[in-house]
Amino acid sequence: MKDKDLRKRVPYHIQRDVLDELGVDQVAEKSDFKISAKEKLREAVRFKSCFLSFVPLLTWLPRYPFRENAIGDLISGISVGIMHLPQGMAYALLAAVPPVFGLYSSFYPILIYFIFGTSKHISVGTYAVMSVMIGSVTERLAPDSDFMIPGNDTNSTSLDIVSRDAERVKIAATVTFLSGIFQLLLGLVRFGFVVTYLSEPLVRAYTTAAAIHVIVSQLKYSFGINPQRYSGPLSLIYTIIEDCALLGQTNIGTLVVSIVTIIGLVAAKELSALAARKIPIPIPVELITIIIATVVSWQMDLKTEYGVEVVGKIPSGLQAPVAPAVSLLGSMVGDAFALAVVGYGIAISLGRIFALKYAYKVDSNQELIALGLSNSIGGLFNCFAISCSMSRSMVQVSTGGKSQVAGAISALVILVILLKIGELFEELPKAVLAAIIYVNLQGMMKQFGDIRSLWRTNKVDMVVWVMTLILTVLFNPDMGLAASIAFSILTVVFRTQLPKYSILGQVPGTDIYKPVEDYNQEIPGIMIFHSSATLYFANAEMYIDALYEKTGVDVAKLLSHKKKLEAKRLRKEKKAAKKAKKEAKKRAKEAVKAAEEPKFSDTDESGEEAEANGDVHKLSVKEPKDVGAVEVGPDPDTDTTLPQAIILDLSPVNFLDTVGVKTLRNIYKDYGEAGVQVYFCGCQRGVVESMEKGDFFNEKVTKSILFSSVHDAVLYCQQGNSEEVQYILMSYTHTRISEVS
């Protein structure tokens, strides 16, 4: 049976009184009950609930389903831990610190997140975007030029790599500590909603632009060159120009290693993707690559024979905590805040995706606290800022990971590597790590396809995407983020300043109102004005202009013309009164003169009678008829038929500032002076409260001009302000799907 045969038309009727705002409050029995501030405070400081929410581990670990989840979490943890090794070492190069500190950043923060995090599936640790942001700070505050020492020759200098790396590690740890403090403070004050200012197009464009920064920063390792470090706006452009100028100094051995590694990684990943259908555990391509590269480098002595730069000494064991460099904090506040926002935005976005897919909740404020503790405590152990990685998270999910236990196991894998295995990778070429970064960034580069899809769906979002990419590429990632957020917010402001205004008409037989330009169903004598945006200071003037244009009633001109007519009428009245007074005096003189002359005829009897009665000086002087009735032609600019009433649909308005309240007050007053009654409908509670606080209502203007719906306001106008009017709210055929046996 076809779908149309399953449909049945069901007519229904509702009968009630026309209700204004006061009537709704009475019928609905509105309650004035409010939770006291004392009760809110008591609820907020309940120790047990606060402590358990602050340490989620205590809530979910006692109920951990060991039999169902243990095997999957174990396999997943080992798989992700193996990925942490090459990615941690590679991303340490982006942060401009020795590779071993990438392994530290893959251990301490993960354990902290295991205790305080709420997402079961994301894999926190090193991340390319965060690493390149750290690298921009470390290379800016500790450039190579500050560590040049005189050589044996008079004009020669050499770079003190040990001192430079030590200073950069201190800078990276300090900015990480400060970013963690920012995240922790934002979480404690329940400021998790700050991530809402990072829209999906903005985040995807930002990560794409950051990937371009990452690629450019790794070119020196792929070509074996040593370009000058640039910072500030256009630094990426200057770096590319510098790299191109140094291509003649390319180390051929390093370039060959890079090309072979990239080709091998791409081919291996394609084969791994094909084999994923048959093998439940993903092939650790990066781990196999660095093992083979290390063995080849050691056997062929690439460092000595071909001048290929290698990782160098990797100390075994863990380091003791070190206090952050307080003297550096003032020079990195902006960088730290950008790290805090970007790291949190990426983590919570990915966490919400998995939470929605697997039906659990991620606490945005607790995630801020977890990441804040991970970064601040990690900064004490010389780690650099972390977030979550999409590739590792997908591996964690695909290999059976179902809880944060998988993350803890991956941290244990890194611990074993730090204690026993790390020193085996000292001969690993840095070009191999750069190649791993290139291949892992191919997913981000595919995000250029967003431009095409956004062009079809939402051109404003496409503009945000493109501008975010351009701003982040031209500026540093931190400055680019700030500029991108500002531009994104401006697009929202502009859209509220340019809403769609329309006059609504009634669909016959219903309480549905649609724009008349689409449905052409105007209501005689009633104008229903609708705006698609809220009303506030930025668009208040445009709201009034659109109201004048759509209703065809320019109240300003109408009142101006009315004042001109009034002034003209007063001038004519004054002139007529002066003329009448002059005429009266003239007649009085003639009457006196006539009274003094002898009366010889019967025609003067009335005068004699008046004289006899003593009323000679009390003559009745008849003034000109209709002195105040001045007929003036209509003004061609304002000649229009005034509507009986104008209804403002305020249902899209979610707040009113003082300018908005003043605008509505002026509209009501001006149209009222022009003889047009104004009503408001669809006012939300906050809008009504703003009108009350803004002294909109008084003894003459009450809530009786507010209506819950457009239909109530229309019927009220049509019935001539009757207090109780029974009407059929809906009497039309309604379609719904009904079950058919």
UniProtKB/TrEMBL annotation:
User: What spans are recorded as compositionally biased (Basic residues)?
Assistant: 576-588
Q: Which domain of life is it from?
A: Eukaryota
Check the record and name the InterPro entries matching this protein. S04_transporter_CS, SLC26A/SulP_dom, SLC26A/SulP_fam, STAS_dom, STAS_dom_sf
- Record's keyword annotation contains Membrane: yes
A Pfam family that this protein carries is Sulfate_transp
The STAS domain extends over 516-717
Name the membrane topology term.
Answer: Multi-pass membrane protein
Tell me, in one coarse class, where this protein mainly resides: membrane
Q: Does the keyword Endoplasmic reticulum apply?
A: no
Question: Which sequence ranges are marked TM in the entry?
Answer: 44-61, 89-116, 171-193, 246-267, 279-300, 336-356, 368-392, 404-421, 465-494
Q: Where is the composition biased (Basic and acidic residues)?
A: 589-602
GO MF: secondary active sulfate transmembrane transporter activity
Q: What UniProt keywords apply to this chain's record, in alphabetical order?
A: Membrane, Transmembrane, Transmembrane helix
- The UniProt regions of compositional bias labelled Acidic residues, in chain numbering, are 603-612
Q: Where in the cell is it found?
A: Membrane
GO cellular component: a single term:
membrane
> What name does the UniProt record give this protein?
Solute carrier family 26 member 6
Q: Which organism is it from?
A: Cyprinus carpio (Common carp)
